[in-house]
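Running this now, will post back.
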Amino acid sequence: MRDLQDVDSLLLKELKSCCATEYNFLPRETGLKLMESASTENHSGVSAKCRDTRVEELWSLTSFFGYCTQTFVQAVNLLDRFLTIMKVQPKHLPCIGVCCLHIAAKMVEEESNVSPTHELIRISQSKFTVSDLCRMEKIISEKLSVEPKAVTALTFLHLYYSAFTSLSAGREEIPSIGRLEAQLKACLCRLVFSKAKPSVLALALIAQEFEALQSVMLLKTVQQFQRHVKISDSELLHWKEHVAKCMVEYRSSECNKPDNKKLVWIVSRRTAQNLQTSHFSVPGLPTIPERSWDESESEDSCEDMSCGEDSPCGSLGSDGEGAFFPSTFLSCRE
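Update: finished.
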């Protein structure tokens, strides 16, 4: 492993620039403390638990629509910054959360990949309207500095990773960027990590992984970056401990991973009864003859077995028995 002098000068310059501007995109500390002290039973403000639940739902929506990690991280950053400067009632949080995801998607994703507002509302099973979402988008944009190049922990994670990759030159085993991004998303589902400076959180994630590898050379390079961006030993150790604790909890069998959650159909009692009735009244399909047939017989047979508009095969299909989206629908979204 070589010295930081061997790292691309433009990369180090960008790292310094991001360190200088990261404070502009931090949530207000007083607002974070208010959320931590708020009770879930007290409806006067958003609690930490309520916020964490909303972020986990944003992760599920991000996975469902096939959005990238940057979109999710940007959405969480917007959400935290808005919640820490505005007095928000819990009943408005679903609209704010979905709106932050939509704003982030429009900034990060290709235009053709951005889900329409009505579809986003429908899949998130929210009770607000498209006009509500548009009004909230305007409020958030006015209150925050909505920039496509906001400096987040993901920004530093990619910069650090590029530097480590160039320095190792294949001589050291380095965890994949996908693994590190997944760990970052898990951390962002806990309000406590919103207190960390992005540059520190990203380096703490990498240092935690390198310690598991027991690589002396990689850990020495972490120390070099630590000095370069002026992070104290106590600060890095503090957030490494938080990251380690979060990873232990996340890997436990009791933890419900947001990206593995299934989206559930919510239907009325009448609709459920109709679905149940139609399920038991499915007509039997004609037996397919085993003998060979000519062209005319083939056309007739296909006509008999086709599913028309009135056929149950054209409705819920195999998902008629279950409560979740069909796997074919999920795969086509991806």
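The chain has two domains: 1-261, 269-333. More later if anyone needs it.
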